[in-house]
Design brief:
Keywords: Signal
CATH class of the domain at 74-172: Alpha Beta
Helix content: 25-40%
Signal peptide: 1-22
Strand order of the largest sheet: 7-8-6-5-9
Number of strands: 9
Distance between the termini: 59 Å
Mean pLDDT: 75
Largest sheet: 5 strands, mixed
Shape: elongated
CATH topology of the domain at 74-172: Translation Initiation Factor Eif1
CATH architecture of the domain at 74-172: 2-Layer Sandwich
Radius of gyration: 28 Å
Low-confidence stretches: 27-37
Number of helices: 3
Length: 173
């Protein structure tokens, strides 16, 4: 390979931003909290947490009145089971709310009003004594299309519940 002045200039231009960035950061600008560490294959293994604090940067305080208010409640929706019933796939989701049980009933009403259903869906929301939780059952056609409709239906209800009641929603559907 022939080394020319053009090649040398090209390499210099590629290395220039790296060299200037490395030179612009003085070692004294960053303080690391002491942590015991060992070296493994040239990389430090930190046994304790290492916190890096840049000088001159103050932590952000919560802005007064600009924090989104949330109700002190969380609704968990978790897929429980599915089975074939009347040639359709039936899905069951468990619903657990950490506060007032009446809000779970309100999720059921929102889901039935805002969920998307097909004529064969037969959506039901009820307290299941065997699970000791609320359950939402719905049927859709078998396969990827039906599974997508099930996910959309439950998610619409969860989104509306979050919007209306301001609760956090954790779902594993």
């Amino acid at each position: 390979m022939k080394f020319t002045i053009v090649t040398a200039l090209f390499h210099a231009l590629l290395a220039f931003p790296l060299a200037t960035n490395a030179a612009a950061i003085p070692d004294s600008s960053v303080d690391a909290v002491k942590a015991t560490s060992e070296v493994y294959s040239g990389w430090p293994i930190v046994q304790n947490s290492t916190l890096i604090e840049e000088r001159g940067v103050e932590p952000l305080n919560e802005p007064n009145g600009n924090v989104e208010k949330r109700a002190a409640c969380t609704l968990w929706a978790k897929w429980d089971s599915n089975w074939v019933e009347n040639a359709a796939r039936r899905y069951r989701v468990r619903l657990v709310l950490d506060t007032d049980i009446n809000l779970t009933v309100r999720f059921c009403h929102l889901w039935l009003d805002y969920g998307s259903f097909a004529p064969v869906s037969n959506p039901q929301c009820f307290f299941h004594p065997g699970l000791n939780t609320w359950a939402a059952d719905v049927s859709f056609i078998q396969g990827p299309v039906g599974h997508g409709q099930y996910l959309d239906s439950i998610q619409r209800g969860l989104n509306k519940f979050r919007e209306v009641w301001g609760c956090d929603v954790n779902s594993d559907i």
